[in-house]
Amino acid sequence: MASESISVTTSDDQTIQLSRKHAQMSQTINSMLEDSVGADQEAIPLPNVSSEVLKKVIDWCTHHENDPAPVEKVKKLNKKREYKAKNSTISDEWDKNFVNAELRVIVDILLAANYLDVKGLFELMCKHIANELKGKTPDQIRERFGIQDDLTEEDKAAMRKAWGATKNDS
Amino acid sequence: MDDLPDELLLRVFQYYSTDGSDMKSILTFGAVCSTWRGICYLRTIDRQASQTLNDIRMQMILPRFSETLSQVTLDIRKSSLSPKSIDLLQRCTHLVRLNVINVGTTDLLPALVRLIPKIPLRDFSLESSNLYPIDPIMYSMAGHSTLKNVSIQAERITVTLFSTLLQMNRGIERLRVGRVVNIGDESILTSTIESYPSLTSLHLNYMQLPHPPILAALRNKRITSLGLSQISHRDVTNIFLTDGGLHHLDHITHLSLDVVRKIDPALPFPLPSSIPLYPSLSHLEYRGPFFSSNVCLVLRDILESSSSLKSLTLIDNRFHSTQFSILLDGLRANQSITSLHVEANDVDLGLLCPLLANNNQLRRVILSDEMRDKDPHVCKLIDTMADINEKLQLLDREGDVKLREKIRRNHTKLKKQIAQMFERL
């Protein structure tokens, strides 16, 4: 019978135990487990995830362990034949608190969720960043996210021209 | 944020739609830095490419994406396009799909004629065209080595021109032609269709077209997909019950019939005794302005007896609930259909609920917006059923899975192009 807990080794050489149920919420770990059926139960290496971030991921998995499996629905086109944007509302209060963290941590969790392929967590992080961007000017975004302005005046002029074109179309 | 790969940033931007309300936000993000600008192009380029391109967008997009742009729609009436912009498209070395809409006799015709032979087109379609004569466009396709799928929905294509198109392009696989008029020698067209080496799908507007080309199509065993539009009930009977028709349909897998005139209930409907005999038929589409109970009984029998039919499309704006109930009996008994597309404004959507709740084989149900809007409560119930049933996709008319697949495929190419663009900057 399969063990009820799984050992993983993080990028900072920490070995962490997590339940099989939580491990299986990550498609990446799940695939590794399936590949290693019958082999010696060694710790699964996760070279792209630090122990600090993995603990956050486990926290999220613990809170959402009874959620139904996410189903990827086909995006629909509206009457103007354009894709609707994904809904960026975060409705779960626990999730709202969870994303109330430093940007550095949020980005690390997003990268980890992407690497581990934890769909719900990945979507949550994307939503949060999308919400963070809402209503901000380019200057405010650069300041908030620590991004350097490397656009030339020529680039900016082209963008302004495109803005005008889009406005006229809609 | 610098650590975030482009693909993840793109996923974040997907929370912003490309319609008017969020477009400003996306363009704002594009003004943050060159990386974000590239990602914003990725987010918007598909819309721009698959919708319409005007001069300004052409000038913005083409210098950067001329090597990756794979499909373009040109709406000549809506866009302010100049011949110079269309000439720019000649640089698109991977442009395989060109869709031209609403073209009349304009200054752009010579540019289009110049463009078509220069690009590696695989799919070309001309829709809602008032272009007359159509000859220059047809001749511009002559000898095109990559052209596989052609759709010409224009007025007054002569039999001679139709024959010439096929004779000059021997590699066409899918052909849809509207409004062929019988000017010219139809025997040339008949013999061309009958022996055409690569044609697998033919969709013809039946009005004004003489019978022989249709029968020739039925004799060409390579043609497994046949569509006939603008046909009357009398024509259907003639096609399927004449010596040349009925028993040649054994190899047909896709059959689409668009009936324009009211079916006379007194006349025998030609399908019931034939379709169940077609062992290969997997896709049946029936469009018409009137669905009689007789037709529904026929379709019910087909559904009950066919084990090969995978997809059923029924589109009729006067399709009543009582008739739909007859069809549902057939659907309940059927064990092969996985895709159901219904557009019928008078149908009570609630009738579908028991079918969706108990059917395990349906994978895709497409309902028109009008049906969905008519009864939002039932619609919500059906949506919930689709949410519960993971295998079922509930789509509206425009819910195009292929489009999503195409976007996914294009991202890789576009990303490479953007990376090269960054290197140049």
Structure description:
The complex is a heterodimer of chains A (about 170) and B (about 425). In chain A, about 50% of the residues lie in helices and about 5% in strands. Chain A contains eight helices and three strands; from the N terminus they run E-E-H-H-E-H-H-H-H-H-H. Chain A has helices at about 20-25, 25-35, 50-65, 95-100, 105-115, 120-135, 140-145, 155-170, and strands spanning about 5-10, 15-20, 45. Chain A has a three-stranded mixed beta sheet with strand order 2-1-3. In chain A, strand 1 and strand 2 form a beta hairpin. In chain A, helix 3 crosses helix 5 and helix 5 (about 105-115) runs antiparallel to helix 6 (about 120-135). Chain A is elongated, with a radius of gyration of 20 Å. The model of chain A is unreliable at about 70-85 and about 165-170 (pLDDT under 50). Chain B has about 425 residues and is α/β, with parallel strands linked by helices. Chain B has a domain at about 1-45: Monooxygenase, CATH 1.20.1280. Chains A and B meet through helix 5, helix 6, helix 7 and helix 8 of A and helix 1, helix 2, helix 3, helix 4 and helix 17 of B.
Number of strands of chain B: 15
Q: How much strand of chain A? A: 5-15%
- The CATH superfamily of chain A turns out to be Potassium Channel Kv1.1, Chain A
Which overall shape of chain A is indicated by the principal axes computed on the Cα atoms? elongated
Structural class of chain A: mainly alpha
Low-confidence stretches of chain B: 45-51, 400-409
Main sheet: strand order of chain B: 1-2-3-4-6-8-9-10-11-12-13-14-15
β-strand percent of chain B reads: 15-25%
Distance between the termini of chain B: 21 Å
Describe the main β-sheet of chain A briefly.
3 strands, mixed
Radius of gyration of chain B: 24 Å
Q: Mind describing the biggest β-sheet of chain B?
A: 13 strands, parallel
What's the helical proportion of residues of chain B? Answer: 40-55%
Mean pLDDT of chain A: 79
Helicity level of chain A:
40-55%
What is the CATH third-level topology name of the domain at 1-43 in chain B? Monooxygenase
Query: What is the C-level CATH assignment of the domain at 1-43 in chain B?
Result: Mainly Alpha
Q: What characteristic shape of chain B results from the CA principal axes?
A: flat
Structure class of chain B: alpha/beta
Provide the succession of SSEs of chain A.
Answer: EEHHEHHHHHH
